[in-house]
Amino acid sequence: MSRRLIAHVHVDGVAYGPDDKIPASVLRRIGDHAFADHDQDDDADSGDGDQDDGGDGSGGVEAPPRSGRGSGVEAWREFAEQHDIEVPAGATRDDIIAACEAAELVEREE
């Protein structure tokens, strides 16, 4: 999914423009209102115009936990697919987490 900015934005002192390739870690920090594919009528219809997206720019989809309840392969597969990460049928949970880390959807654990 490629998104195009409607104007220049600054993130951590770096300027990004409509024709720039923006890293996934930066894309998550830019609000939907800054992109050309944003339907501006959505804000008018929502009442106050504030939308809770979970604060991470992922559209409210939070990454599953890495251990315990809700940390299984299916939870991680669903999360990856919601972010357009292709997951092979036989991928393990660790494979999927690694793909999400590579796409900068989640922080690498040390």
Give your account of this protein's structure:
This protein has 110 residues and is mainly alpha-helical. 26% of the residues lie in helices and 5% in strands. The protein contains four helices and two strands. Strands 1-2 form a two-stranded antiparallel sheet. A hairpin with a 2-residue loop joins β1 and β2. α3 runs parallel beside α4. The protein is elongated. About 17% of the residues have low confidence.
Structural class: mainly alpha
Task: Report strand order across the widest sheet.
Answer: 1-2
- What is the percentage of strand-forming residues? 5-15%
Helix percentage = 25-40%
Distance between the termini: 29 Å
- The geometry reads as elongated
Protein topology:
Layout: E1 9-11, E2 14-16, H1 24-27, H2 41-45, H3 73-82, H4 93-102
Antiparallel strand pairs: 1-2
Helix pairs in contact: 3-4
What is this structure, in a nutshell?
With 110 residues, the protein is mainly alpha-helical. The protein has helices spanning 24-27, 41-45, 73-82, 93-102; strands at residues 9-11, 14-16. Helix 3 (73-82) runs parallel beside helix 4.
Identify the notable features of this structure and list them briefly.
single chain, 110 residues, 2 strands, 26% helix, 5% strand, elongated
